[in-house]
Design brief:
It contains 17 helices and 35 strands. One of its GO terms (molecular function) is hydrolase activity, hydrolyzing O-glycosyl compounds.
Length: about 800
Amino acid sequence: MLRKYLKILLLLVALLFLLQSSLYLYRVWQGSPALPKTTVTSPPAAPVVLPVIRQAASLGINTNEIGYTDASIPFVDLFRSANPFQENVLHLKAEAVTYDANGWPTNLNGGEVGTRFLGELPADAIPAGEYTVLYEGDGDIRYGNDAKLVTHTAGRDLITLDAGSNARLDASLMVTRSNPADYLRNIRILPAGGICQHNPLKRVTDANACGGEAGMYLAFVDHYASIVFNPAYLDFMKDFKAIRFMPMSGITRNPAAHWQARPRLEEATWGGTYGARGTPLEIMVELANRLHKDAWFNMPHAADDEYVREYAAYVRDHLNPELKIYLEYSNEIWNTNFNHGEYTQKKGIELGLGLNAAEVGYEYYTIRAREIFAAWEQVFGGRERFIRVLGGWDTRPDFAEKVLSYNDTYKDVDALAIAPYFGGNIKGYREATTVDEIFALTTAPDSYRSLPEVLEKVQKHAQLAEQFGVDLLAYEGGQGLVDWATRKPEQHPNPLFFAANRDPRMGELYQAFLAGWQQAGGKLMMLFAAPRVCQWYGCWGLKEHINQPREQAPKYAAVLDFMATHPPVEQMPTPAKPAQNPLATAPRDSNEPAIVWRPAPDPDRVFFIENPITLDLLLEGTSWDKRNLFGKWQGKWDKDFLFLSVRVYDSKRVADSENPADDDSIGFFIDTDNSRNGTLDGKTDFHLLFGCGADQVVLGDNSAPLSTTALRSIRFDTRALYDGYVLEAWIPWAALGINPAIKDRVSVNVEINDDDDGGARDGKIAWMAQDKQALTDPKQWGVVLFSGR
């Protein structure tokens, strides 16, 4: 009888186990068109416990932009980093394809659609071998490049990913058939193996590696939604104190203004080009929480108030309250390579802050930053949890002084952040033939951006920060060996730069750099960046791919060694903020030289613009655009000529009026005796007009007279370019009646007239102006000093 009861009891236990297993499998395998949430879908056998981190945690790290070339491989699902199908990076016949709100193709309409999910990556960046592709819907996928199909069943493919003979990984896929009634969607590309719950930083091949304890093994193919991150990525990021999410968030050149336009979990991919890519905030917060790292967030430059408040509310409610938050508005608004700067300049002009686009852009930056800081403080009910960061310019302490000073901005700021990158004189780099020469330039005190010069600038910023009562941080930093004139990795001097980054001496430079930063008073340093492939645009990663061994990555090894030998120390408290601006000074004397004209000894380079001066003061018109009404200029001289170069950015060029000033043209003003009267004197104040496409210079309104012979002696050329035109003019000093010498002075101004639709001109910008009458008031022109070197 007892044996019978035992059999019944065992049968009930078995049935209960089967029921629980069925419910579990149902939860794991049930499909959904949307991307699965980051919630754990299966009950863990034990809480996830990270290993103890013993590094000093005085250094932070920048993430990477999400894309198929990202060698940091942040996600366990490789398709997260693919480009959106709509970008058609494979150049397929996709014009008629339609898409749903998340970017999945709903109807091919006779075409094909595809994307890349790996590109130009080192062979060891991911484990070679088999990967499982999961998808939903009725359709067919074809694989390309290094991705090869092994087996296919409905909703599940097995592929291999192995680098070709070039030792580089490229992988793509194409949707060749999709049923519009049940379109193919929710693609996931997952590696073999998984993790053990007690060590999510290490990939294992199977459950045997987890000690055989039930439920400890989490296979990637079953638990990708809760694992989310590549274990190797977590293992790399764990060693740093804080994570700067600016690159990963996709804010660079991103015009997103509304909360509805933010990166979303449900989107087909998170990679892409500028404006499309971006990791959802939920994922970034999860990464910070999982690794227990402080988080650095950047608000997009065009984000409206709702965007700012919703962002703040999510961080408030979901980021571990033990973690510190660094809050920064946009990124490098002074950097003209980004549209962030143009945006702030336009907003400053709209607000009537002044005529100087650069200056009003800086001021608007401080206004909007303070608004964002105030909004976060309101959402959080205080500012104990976050640090208000104002971005600086590593080579320009005067910029930091300006932005901290505008309307006493320093009183609403906790930290000034710069990006100290060390390198050297680019001319010297181009002439170098050995790596030894690269290192010599990088350490030479008189080499531009060399390590000694950069640390000197750090010290000046540290002094400024102390005077204003704020901390000095680094939002980025590290080596900066790059030649922006190149476009291919094999172009000189790029191979020398790559070799220098792989040289043990680079590790020694990093040690000196980090020690110098701390000695100067710098606090948190956010190194740039997570693993990246060396390319023509730089070798920025601490490693070249996520799986690169420490012994092959001297920068990474040096950083870990530095943290291990520089344990955390009690930071000096931030000085109290002064009640008054400590560096308030009188305005610059307008009678002092604003620029110098340097001699032109090389006849082949007289028009080569080496030190451009910006033309962006809006004197006429209501719109200003760096692609339609913007310019830069430069002057050089010798005993016979002024060599005038003006580069104009103009989307449309018009020449249909009798007066060149009503068309696209350039005006050059010069007060040859530097008398600086309040009006044009008709004697030594000249106004020369160079019409775009014209063959003869003419005199502008109220110019001092010039003879026909003198006018004809002025030679010039206006060459059309794809995005505007350039003026190159030879102006004889004899035509202007002067014979300049070293240390002489003249006053000058430069204008650009713009006409986009025929008839009267539509806009005018200039170099120097305090008001819109500047061109008839030589007192507002800039004083130029003739230099002998």
